[in-house]
Amino acid sequence: MPHFANPKIGAVAGNAKVGNRVNLWTRWQALEYITSQNFERRALDLFDVVMVVPGAIGAWRTAPVLAGGGYHTNTVAEDADLTMNLLEQGYWVIYEDQALAFTEAPVNADGLMRQRFRWSFGILQAIYKHKGAISKRRAMGLFALPNILIFQILLPLVSPLIDLMFVAGVIHYLVDKHFHPETASTDSFYKLLAFFLAFLVIDFAASALAFALERKHPASKGDGWLLFHIWIQRFTYRQLFSVVLFRTVKRAIDGKPFNWDKLERTAQMSKSTEKITEVR
Fold it and tell me: What is the percent of the chain with per-residue pLDDT over 90, rounded to a whole number?
């Protein structure tokens, strides 16, 4: 791989795409991979501090991996642990969107929650384990770790309040409008609608940008249709991931051990993926 001609590069994260788009849950995860994971790696690549080289597709420089002891068994997110290990050693970790792999995503809500519980708990373990890297890698301390803590832990934890406050505001206005019309504030109601609409539009625009940045490849054919799922996917994910993160934080506070929860694999790919991967 030409990237490893640069001795500062310790690992390269590839472009993981969901290969089993067989139902709504897996299509939503395909949308998430593009608008969240790959989009985030593009941003962190600017500072050479990609925080997680995914297990599905990545390349590692042998020497720093051996120096770091390889995959450790004291976290349940071993890919994040090893990536942060290399960053702590002073190596760069970058993203290469031309390196493509298909991964099998959980096919139902239960499997998705179990997977993300392990991911979020493992990320917390890895951050705590490698907190010393913050002082060694300024970009890691200023951008990468705050990004994880704010956008992957804190905001998802409280994000359902956005929906709850919006619904409560609408109900409050309608009740006042019916029973106490003299106290109902139409201006406040319109502001509430405007802010919530702005939130949805900004999220859609950022997601559209993520899709635009995806490298054109047969594997990306039809990806644009996933954007039509964005608002219902976001609403569902906000509720589901909030539960996952509450469990994660509770488990971390309790200090209870957590075993690697292996999901069942079906090896079922979507027809479009099979056409791309078949030998020609």
Answer: 49
